[in-house]
TrEMBL record:
The lineage of its organism: Bacteria, Bacillati, Bacillota, Clostridia, Thermoanaerobacterales. NCBIfam families: nadC. Involved in the catabolism of quinolinic acid (QA). This is Probable nicotinate-nucleotide pyrophosphorylase [carboxylating]. Pfam families: QRPTase_C (PF01729), QRPTase_N (PF02749). It comes from the Bacteria. The keyword Transferase applies. One of its GO terms (molecular function) is nicotinate-nucleotide diphosphorylase (carboxylating) activity. Residues 109-274 form the Quinolinate phosphoribosyl transferase C-terminal domain. Residues 22-107 form the Quinolinate phosphoribosyl transferase N-terminal domain. Belongs to the NadC/ModD family. Keywords: Glycosyltransferase, Pyridine nucleotide biosynthesis, Transferase. It is an enzyme of class 2 (transferase).
Length: 284
């Protein structure tokens, strides 16, 4: 994670949440009151984002102590203490929701990624994310995918060429689009083409595509595409992939399976902050 970008995201989130001031905390907690507590998982899952949570509190008060009990990527059970936090109560309370929002969201992504990865265990296929991410949070969400055992697709449009159906329609066909892209970009950028049938696979292969994205193809057709390509291009399966069919897709021999669901519509992993009475040691 880029530290400068991370701090910018955290400050933006804190500005959004605090507004003109945390009136509740200011009214109910005297300045200088100490607090100690723990971040605890309320359900089983994979943890991601502990450093983000730590930095939230550090931005508000660098004197706050934040001690990890586990590390990102750990599978935890319900009730596991993830970290201890102690220091001035006011900044801890003010930063609580933002820290938990990041931690719960990223842990949810890591948990889903790990679950799907386990479903394709035994097959030499990579699970990759997409650009279907929350605006502004792509860096963190793609980090969480890696924590869960997945891999990243393009981070942004400048990472590579992905010629999709609308590009093909406007460019005048697969061959024309690939030729135009090959002439326009430097030699280190790979060119990927999205196709919907075996004719598209043949044309993309003949045009010299490095990667062919098999869009919404059923497993039998994916298997035929794998046979047709014979290792001459990387094959990526995408579209309508879920827990029910992902293992069948992996069994076709495809190289990559990309899923927008690794980052979009992912439920939070339920994590809470439990504070003790002023001056008490955090409960384990």
């Amino acid at each position: 994670m880029n530290e400068f970008e991370l701090d910018r995201l955290i400050r933006t989130a804190l500005t959004e949440d605090i507004g003109a001031g945390d009136w509740t905390t200011a009214a109910t907690v005297a300045a200088g009151t100490p607090a100690a507590g723990v971040l605890r998982s309320r359900e089983a899952g994979v943890v991601a984002g502990l450093e983000v949570a730590r930095r939230v509190f550090a931005v508000l008060d660098p004197r706050i102590q934040f001690q990890n009990r586990v590390t990102d990527g750990n599978q935890v059970e319900r009730g596991t203490v993830l970290a201890e936090v102690s220091g001035a109560a006011r900044p801890i309370l003010t930063g609580e929701r933002v820290a938990l929002n990041f931690l719960c969201h990223l842990s949810g992504i890591a948990t889903r990624t790990r679950r799907l990865k386990e479903l394709v265990a035994g097959y030499p296929v990579r699970l990759v994310d997409t650009r279907k991410t929350t605006p502004g949070l792509r860096m963190l969400e793609k980090y969480a995918v890696r924590v869960g055992g997945g891999h990243n697709h393009r981070f942004a449009l400048d990472d590579g060429v992905l010629i999709k159906d609308n590009h093909i329609a406007v460019a005048g066909g697969i061959t024309a689009a690939v030729r135009a892209a090959r002439a326009a970009v430097h030699h280190l950028l790979k060119i990927e083409v999205e196709v919907e049938d075996l004719d598209g696979v043949r044309e993309a292969l003949a045009a010299g595509a490095d990667v062919i994205l098999l869009d919404n193809m059923p497993p039998p057709l994916i298997k035929e595409a794998v046979r047709l390509v014979g290792g001459r291009a990387v094959l990526e399966a995408s579209g309508n992939v879920d827990e029910q069919n992902i293992r069948e897709i992996a069994a076709t021999g495809v190289n990559l399976i990309s899923l927008g669901r690794l980052t979009h519509s992912v439920p939070y992993l339920d994590i809470g902050l439990d504070l003790d009475a002023p001056g008490a040691q955090p409960a384990g």
